[in-house]
Amino acid sequence: MKSSLSFLGMGAAVIVFFAGGLTTLAQEPLEPRIAAYDKGPATIDVAQYPADMQKRYKLFATRCSKCHTIARPINCDFVLEDEWERYVKRMMRKPGSGINQAAGKDIYEFLAYDSKTRKKAMYEKRTKEVK
Amino acid sequence: MTIKTQSFSRPIQGWLWAIALVAGVWLLAPAQAQANPSFARRFDAKCTMCHAPLPPRLNNLGITFKRLGYRLPDADPQGVLILQDTPNRALLDNFSLIGDVRLENLKGKPTSIAMHEVELVGAGSLNKYLSFATEVAWDVGELGMEQYEAQLLFGRPSRNFTARFGMMAPLLWDKFGHQRLGIARAHVLNNRVSAGAFVGYRPRDNQEGVEIGANFTSLGAEGGTMRSTFLSAAVFNGLTKAGNELGENNKSKDVLAQVHHVWGENHTIGALWYRGRVTNIDTTAYADTYSRWGVFGNYELRHGTDALAGFMVGRDDTTSSTIGRISSRSWFAELNQTIAPRTAAFARYDRFEPRRPSATGLRRGMTVGVSCQTIDNLLITAEYTGQKTGTGARGRDIIVRAIVIY
């Protein structure tokens, strides 16, 4: 049994040795669009937003920065309600996101409001395109 | 004179290593990506996705990710569980380099600063069936491969079977081991029951062997909740007289059975049973057997406050007629508290009690400390450990550790 286990150990060592090489051969580059979002501003000036939206912004900034940069949703080109609904629902389903129904609704409402305010021009343009 | 030279050269060497590491991280960090360790780089994710409250402690997503061969549990648009393979990047992005520098003030020894260890670690899934993990360490002047492990996975994301083989970390519930917040390991994991010529078994050591596992994972109805149950049975090569792995004189094998359940973001519970035998056929022939069973768990009382506890019972039988059987029991309780962003405090009480005729084996300890991840690539930990043995001897260690990771 001992020699069999050692043989398996050697097999594992060989796999590990080749794995280092294999992982570098099949390179998958980072998505440039997402990398560009990540490099943008990481905060929103919500001083002029209503008090309830300021509260929702805090929730958004906390929950939506656990797995990725907060700059990603801030700078992405989603503006329409449908897009945000789909995106927030997708995030809610992610294991470990900790975004429950109530938090998801608040985050969605903040993002929809922020798109109409901060990204107003893009929002109006995209709305016309959809119609 | 020789002692002076040594005590002078160690600090210089330690600082040089630290400067070299920081410079290395700065030079190697690619400009277009965050200078995060390997998995964060490859998934383009933040540390907090898999670590809570701080690295290296894993949350339940991180535990499941690791257990399923470094495949990330995710949900498809219909809410069905899927597993994402580890993306591959450039060579320098697929591996992490870790440097561990320590300032130590140990009782009875002069204060010193030195490079404790440098590690190169890499792990990931190669396709939907095969994954690997490796760890090469430079430790006190010696270079060695501490882990080399391959894993096969068959089945659906929600229900699958795994086979791990190679030199592996045997324990599934590992929050007091590789994932500990502090520096000192819990006694339950680190202390041995020496019996006659055998230095004794301790659960923390990596061993060569094979493990078969069954894993069950399900997603909750809402809120990104997930629960997983892992079952495993393993056979290892066992230990040498000195307690190391792969002894030429040890012709026996060890077995380990475990169950581990995780739910919510951070709650866990686990149990293990280990049975081992160490033989020596030299002039001091003997055949000791030892067994351990234990239960461990943690419960996040509220966000940022985590209570952990573990209990282990052991039985060591030796062929030495003057010793016979030694029963032992050990336990620990730990409290973690997030006190600021990226900063957590911890306090742990340890008790390790081998029931010998005299109380020489008894060991109690209190560990308190604080750990801070100042930036993604730097983790600083300060820790005080006080210990008392059954004979009344006291000890205390103060250690400040900086881990630089690329």
Q: Overall mean pLDDT score of chain A?
A: 86
Number of helices of chain B: 5
Radius of gyration of chain A: 22 Å
Approximate strand percentage of chain A: under 5%
Helix and strand sequence of chain B: HHHEEHEEEEEHEEEEEEEEEEE
| Sheet with the most strands, sense and barrel status of chain A | none
In helices, the fraction of residues of chain B equals 10-25%
Flag low-confidence runs of chain A. Answer: none
Would you count the extended β strands of chain A for me?
0
Radius of gyration based on Cα positions of chain B: 22 Å
Strand pairing plus helix content of chain B: what structural class?
mainly beta
The end-to-end distance of chain A, rounded to whole angstroms, is 71 Å
Q: Give the overall form of chain B.
A: globular
Describe how the helices and strands are arranged.
The complex is a heterodimer of chains A (131) and B (406).
Chain A: H1 2-25, H2 32-39, H3 51-63, H4 71-75, H5 81-93, H6 101-117, H7 120-130
Helix pairs in contact in A: 3-6, 5-6
Chain B: H1 2-28, H2 38-43, H3 60-67, E1 72-75, E2 81-84, H4 91-94, E3 95-106, E4 112-125, E5 130-139, E6 142-155, E7 159-168, H5 187-190, E8 207-219, E9 226-236, E10 254-263, E11 267-280, E12 286-302, E13 305-317, E14 325-340, E15 343-355, E16 363-375, E17 378-389, E18 394-405
Antiparallel strand pairs in B: 1-2, 3-4, 3-18, 4-5, 5-6, 6-7, 7-8, 8-9, 9-10, 10-11, 11-12, 12-13, 13-14, 14-15, 15-16, 16-17, 17-18
